[in-house]
Prior knowledge:
Blueprint: H1 5-17, E1 39-43, E2 46-49, E3 54-57, H2 72-82, H3 94-105, E4 111-115, H4 118-133, E5 137-141, E6 167-170, H5 175-185, E7 189-194, H6 210-222, E8 226-230, E9 253-256, E10 267-271, H7 276-281, H8 292-307, H9 310-331, E11 336-339, E12 346-349, H10 356-367, E13 370-371, H11 386-405, H12 414-420
Parallel strand pairs: 3-13, 5-6, 5-7, 7-8, 8-9
Antiparallel strand pairs: 1-2, 2-3, 4-10, 9-10, 11-12
Helix pairs in contact: 2-8, 3-8, 5-6, 9-11, 10-11
InterPro entries: Aminotrans_3, Aminotrans_3_PPA_site, PyrdxlP-dep_Trfase, PyrdxlP-dep_Trfase_major, PyrdxlP-dep_Trfase_small
Pfam family, one: Aminotran_3
Family: Belongs to the class-III pyridoxal-phosphate-dependent aminotransferase family.
Amino acid sequence: xxxxxxxxxxxxxxxxxxxGGMYGHQSxxxxxxxxxxFFTQAEGTRISDADGNTYIDFMCAFGPNLLGYQHxxxxxxxxxxxxxxxxxxxPSPLIVDLAEAMVDMISHxxxxxxxxxxxxxxxxxxxxxxxxxDKRKVLVATNAYHGSLPWSTPRPGGVxxxxxxxxxxxxxxxxxxxxxxxxxxxxxxxxxxxxxxxHDTFTDQTLPDAEYAHTARRLADEHDxxxxxxxxxxxxxxxRDCSWETIGVRPDLSAWGKVLxxxxxxxxxxxNNRAREAASRIFVTGSYWxxxxxxxxxxxxxxxxxxxxxxxHIQKIGALFRNGLVEQAKGFGFDLRHTGPExxxxxxxxxxxxxxxxYAFCAAALKRGVYLSPYHNMFINAAMTEADIAxxxxxxGAAFEEIKQNRDSIQPSQLLMAMAEQKRPTTMRQ
Length: 430
């Protein structure tokens, strides 16, 4: 029987000293009852909670775990660098090594800047786009997530309409909607933001249409604006290059994060020479942006990405997971939508507008040692094996059987429904 006594006690303590008990995307407020909030160990593709329960982890820290928790070669690089220098009065030479490695790997890049979070990188892209020709309007897809700062956060608390006064929204994958948004910007168009694929929460994932992507590139060129691909979430899980290279479109700027240090805190903004002068005119910095240990981890991560078959492996593992899950669902009489890239799977049930089936399914899988999400895309990491997928499918098979037997008594998640159906005014949209 799975215990959660220590997790409950930690939640009670946290409620006294942390607003809301926990905050941000790693809060379990939207997760099914019984999902652990606190974890004490991670290795490979498994995580252990405060009570010692271990799970095959399909969230990968919401993306940063690309090659496996505690990857031995990356840990060796981290430990070696810790004995030399980390955060100091100036950066170590590793910042030059890492910039050269990224420029060498990413086709559109001529330069690199490093920071800590995806939000840092996308906001730098926003600033550079505006500095490029001293224009203001920036186009973003409706409900696309580009970080948690006021211009992009999905929740309106503490955000002013003025924070988003110069954002114009369009429908993802719709060339005409994008064209109309450019017309709305007029002579004040600074940049166009795009995600590698549509990866909104609570809904199916949609791969980019080539016409849409090429339209974005053409419109940016025609209006001397910058095209930005936000690769923070999908970077290196779709390609060893910028994700839009898969459809033949090169941006001016690309934002990177999550996987770059395989869990170490480092993100990056890469750009071409067209954007170099504007990048030199903005002022951005952070006390820990130049730390050497995360850069050592990133250099080793990039080396492994460059030299191994990790991408082929996670694509194969992702396909095994997708095919097995869809086949199981049919066998138990459920219609399952498994969308997006195989390496970033999104799993939703048909005829489940209140998420009761997805919610119950993930709760049932958790009891059997598999950590899934009912509303967010998941992630495949290179530490996953075929044996892990077999173990996962054994757990999900039992979970399908459980929800089939209890289907009439399953209750919806009211909070999850409220989040999925939340309507925001245009000026406050994500």
